[in-house]
Structures
1.
Amino acid sequence: ETSELDKNDINSSPQREKWCGHEFLYKFQGFWFTKTYLEATKKVLETFKPLPGDVILASFPKTGTTWLKAILHSIIHPSPRHENHPLTLNHPHQLIRSLETNLYIEKWTELGGTGSTKTPEFPAVKDPKKARILATHLPYQILGDILSFSDCKIVYVTRNPKDTLVSLWHFVQKSSSAEKDPWEVEAAVDQFCRGVVPFGPYYDHVLAYWEQSLNRPGNVHFLTYEELKENPKFHVRKLGEFLRCPFDQSEDGEEKIEEIVKMCSFESLSSQQVNKSNELPGVFPLPYSSFFRKGEVGDHKNYLEDKMIAKIDGITRKKFSRQWFYV
Ligand code: A3P
């Protein structure tokens, strides 16, 4: 059965390239998508309208999305530590749904798949005093018109490109299709450098949100995985201010921040039973446990050869041309 997308875009567009595990990536508006994500992206563009109070967590894959989901949820829906804490009962991806993955691919499959003309609904605002939090990997170049139209708040997290790539490489290796056709490190470096990875190019993705954070600092908050690791309490406080859920300066405020940092740490989250599950969530091909691997800064040194590092650094220097940006 051929979907609308096959007919209109894929066959007529030669811009596709083989990725790992017999999968192809397709170029759409300057970015690369798997076929399923491309279809979901188009649905998002057709139908998503953010509300003024929404909080959008935007990120390139493998840059700290899961961690930030846990932190944002804890800031906006504070809960004392007990056995029924939301992060004990749910994987962060269950607490904060992703526009293109959970809201579209999963719902849409339920509604009858790619031939379906029905559109999944976005979650309703349950408590008008609380923000609705949604996540996305879509680049600003594609989602920006929709996002800037409303007064929503965007939190963007990024990470060292070499660690991001190594994290992605490990993640992809875990899929069953990669077993038959592994994604070799050389190919991964080459494709990452050319931008041919899901939601890539990484550099264009980061730069567009970075620019927005400079132009509209009240609406777009930009932070890095590394600075969050380095000084989590400081950044959780800053996030609280940005999201209009400030922590007070008293001991009580400090304790609340410490509690969030502890609860959302790699050690704490990765040891929760719910996050160790090997069940496949919905249509996603990998189990929730695969979102927790090592959670460290600089792990690329264990996997990339010097010449690969030099190649990525060369591009990073050119694209980012800012001292603090990862070279
Ligand atoms: P590694 O593969 O380097 O370990 P994403 O959530 O965007 O998919 O990113 C996944 C990466 O974030 C993985 O990196 C994962 O281990 C790490 N990660 C997940 N939870 C984390 C946490 N609470 N603190 C720090 N890193 C975390």
2.
Amino acid sequence: MLIAQLIDPDYIRDFDHLSDIVNRAASAGVDLFFFGGSLITANPKFDIVKALKDISDIPVILFPSSPAHIDESADAILFLSLISGRNSEFLIGNHVAAAPILKKSSLEILPTGYILVGCGAATTAQYISNTSPVPYNKPEIAAATALAGEMLGLKLIYLDGGSGAEKPVSPEMVAKVKAWVSTPIIVGGGIKTTKDAAALRDAGADILVIGNGAEKRPEFISELSEIRV
Ligand code: 1GP
């Protein structure tokens, strides 16, 4: 199982702050940085993706909510289709706008079925995408959605409670999706304890995404090295 640390540009105060995060991530063995956010409200004071590439060897994968977030300094992009929703812009519309730009870039394209799950109060991702999440207690809906995504050719499935979710996606849902698809499964949103992380790992998550949990308690990233396999 891999650990991806989400770098939200709104959270980064300055270059020294980013350096601290990178140093901690490197010593904890973080495998990937995801970069992005559903709603970016601040004008970054510096080019964070370029800085990440300059000071770290950890691959940087864009996690965009808009074609405006394409950044050629990164290594790859999650080409996310929001298959839990029925908003055509996030299913295919933004992709049409982004595809010609991506074709000219050197970014690795990672076609990803993105499934938002209701994990407590509505998250920014749900609001901004104007979609209904899969209900928390309906693993079979998540599994059928993931299976349809795999049949459409998507290479990764991302089960996300959304950044700042009150609780993570249930291990039961992850296990059901794991049983139905053969793609790697990314799980994120609301993971704040090693107990949560271990349960999701045991259920079959291939990549865990940690954002708020490490923003609020930076040592959480180091603690996760204990439960990695
Ligand atoms: C959000 O999965 C990521 O898309 C991370 O969520 O910030 O809640 O860890 P958190």
3.
Amino acid sequence: MALDDDIERILFSEDQISQRVSDLASQITHDFTTNAVSSSPPVFVGVATGAFLFLADLVRKIKLPLNVDFVRAESYGSGTVSNGAPRISFDLKIDIQGKHVILVEDIVDTGNTLSCLIALLKSKGVSSVSVCTLLDKRRKVNFELVGKGKYYYGFECPDYFVVGYGLDFAESYRNLPYVGILKPEMYK
Ligand code: 5GP
Ligand code: MG
Ligand code: MG
């Protein structure tokens, strides 16, 4: 009963992810150093649960003072199709008014989750919202960044249901060190 038995194919290996996370961290470090418009550190807001590993690996490689907080978003329940209306728990500990926020996501599919989260951040008076997602399915992404916010992504993801490196199916597989395609018989 190995964890890997349910995986059809690895899409992004542990090494590929690690390399890409380093690239993103350097890019963000560079951008937030050259655009140091604010005296307060940027706030990295992870979208739980899926972004927990990505956020942990990313912030360790960012060579700047920063803050970390979490919101929670749930769009799939225990299925594999987004229901379009994400359930969001938005209870930040950090006062983000006037701050630069980087929303850290596991994967962007329709962009619905992000546009809801960005609207909530905007209503709190943030200076900017950037987005950093590990994976982007490049479908119909319908969200707008705030201020001078930028969009960062790790990999373009083909349109399969993927798990691992934080991403789940019914709360399992999050601990796989790579991103892989789940065997369709696991959810059909
Ligand atoms: P969106 O709101 O952009 O349609 O969907 C975003 C959320 O749906 C992601 O944060 C993620 O939690 C979930 N999601 C989208 N595609 C996948 C996928 O292929 N695998 C998994 N495990 N979750 C996904
Ligand atoms: Mg997510
Ligand atoms: Mg999920």
4.
Amino acid sequence: MAELTLDAVTKVFQEGDGSEVVAVDDVNIDIGDGEFLVLVGPSGCGKSTTLRMIAGLETISSGEIRLGGSRLNEKQPAERDIAMVFQSYALYPHMTVRQNMSFGLEESTDLDDDTIRETVTDAATTMGIENLLDRKPGELSGGQQQRVALGRAIVRDPEVFLMDEPLSNLDAKLRAGMRTEIQRLQEDLDVTTVYVTHDQTEAMTMGDRIAVLDDGELMQVGSPLELYHRPANQFVAGFIGDPSMNFFDVSHEGGTLVGDGFEYPLSSDVASDLGETTDCVLGVRPEDVSLVESATDAHDFRTTVEVVEPMGNENNVYLSFGDEPSDEEPDQRFVATVGGLRRVERDSTVVARIPEDSVHLFDAATGDALH
Ligand code: ATP
């Protein structure tokens, strides 16, 4: 069984001047056998360092990494039964595709030449590159090189795949195609996979579960829908979703949230989740804000259209509270994603509905989700 466990894993880099950088801080994740886990977060949050510790390319400062229950910390990369695919593909330019794919097997196994040849041909067929085996990497497109890099990982039949932003050098269309292909491959091979990306769309579409990192700390691990519907804190809420969730600084006064230019009454159930907290952040996803004909509910607000961003089948409509267009930049601009057929004019007044069953509430001081 190839469950991969990260147990209080920490990485501290020592800088030349004696200072320390905590790149990964006490991270705990259990990745199930055959699971596809996506590690996502902004640049510098510690994704690559985490992956490199799993691969054995970076030492672990404290904590333990286990594969199938046995400790990996002291094992050399070649002893780990883990294959890694890099963003840069890392192919040897002077070798043919076949040589690139055979190399690892020749080095680390005692398979005979015929078996290696057959294994490589099979993997090349799986990746649809069997007609490219005699070419060199310089004679291949980016997408073809990425297939070779993936083919080289699968010939080793590893217990774990690690992928570090493998699609980021491909153009948008090719990237979308390869995403599906990697998912299918992972499902067919049923290999435990950790996939690093900074792209939340890639994370949402590919992962069985997603682990969100920020500044070396694990913010939340969960299925894409859990992260979308029940973010553990404001960071995850803002990171998952495009356009990002709207946030309003509010103070909670006796069952009403008082914001800049609006008041939002809460039902008693929701208000009770806030307890004694007064400084809160109200969050609502753009797709949960709707534009309605007239204000009939306490959660309907007169707003002014600041900008309309047509997206084809949808429009992102940027709104500010109040019905007077202003020359100044509004403090509380927020965005509603609405159907593209609806005509919305800039500077017009519209009624925006922010339904209570769609709002998220966070503690302003800690960022933790309260509701
Ligand atoms: P990106 O998406 O930009 O690749 P990342 O999430 O993969 O970022 P890491 O490369 O893991 O982030 O880096 C995490 C932190 O550790 C950063 O602050 C980085 O500057 C620091 N770091 C990484 N490698 C080293 C190193 N060899 N020495 C010192 N600091 C390092």
